[in-house]
Design goal:
Number of strands: 4
Number of helices: 7
Strand content: 5-15%
Helix content: 40-55%
Bound molecules: iron/sulfur cluster
Strand order of the largest sheet: 1-2
Shape: globular
Largest sheet: 2 strands, antiparallel
Length: 196
């Protein structure tokens, strides 16, 4: 996939709105985490090894802006790691295997583009709920570490629905303004490979 060229006049206002939405997610997550007394640290089952797929052009282009902000040496490092990871996923897919590989942006246990990380990286880990029109509320579990540390505490309402809905609206508006029609489904590694 080639990266669509879009002028700043198109992207910047949407990046600003995306950052405001990310801030709201971070606040919602922090409220829930505080209610459980849950802290995401020292985790053996690091969720940055999960093969998350991301579906929005806006988040993709925002993340690439983060990659472009790294110094040249770091960019080369993450691009090389991203290419290796894509090869690992491709090999595993050919063999019908599941693999867990560390995200190319996680270096020495830390996300080096934390401010640019996509929605699922912000919401993952804590028990949550989702409301779809005409359906009963779906309750999702937290990660294994959350279950071990806080799974015995009463559920604190963490509703992802408004965040998902705002993201869908923002992405649709962005695609319309940018003249984009394709759908995407990309890992962080695949996104970074396209920026090389
Ligand atoms: S973008 Fe950052 S938080 Fe998300 S999986 Fe990669 S390293 Fe982890």
């Amino acid at each position: 996939m080639s990266i669509p060229y879009l002028p700043d006049a198109v992207t910047v206002p949407f990046f600003e709105r995306l950052q405001r939405l990310y801030d709201a997610m971070d606040r919602g997550y922090a409220r829930a985490a505080d209610a459980y007394g849950f802290h995401c640290d020292g985790c053996a089952d690091n969720c940055c090894r999960t093969r998350f797929r991301h579906h929005t052009h806006l988040e993709y282009l925002f993340l690439l802006q983060g990659v472009a902000s790294l110094d040249a040496k770091k960019q080369l490092r993450v691009q090389s790691r991203a290419a290796q990871i894509c090869r690992s996923y491709d090999r595993a897919d050919e063999q019908g295997l599941q693999v867990r590989v560390m995200c190319p942006l996680n270096i020495d246990g830390r996300c080096i583009l934390y401010a640019y990380r996509p929605m699922i990286c912000r919401l993952h880990g804590i028990a949550h709920q989702l409301r779809k029109p005409g359906q009963s509320t779906i309750y999702g579990p937290g990660c294994t570490t959350f279950d071990e540390r806080s799974g015995d505490k009463p559920y604190f309402q963490f509703d992802r629905t408004p965040f998902y809905m705002d993201m869908v609206r923002l992405e649709n508006e962005f695609k319309q303004n940018a003249g984009l029609t394709a759908r995407i489904k990309m890992t962080i590694a695949r996104m970074i490979v396209t920026s090389a």
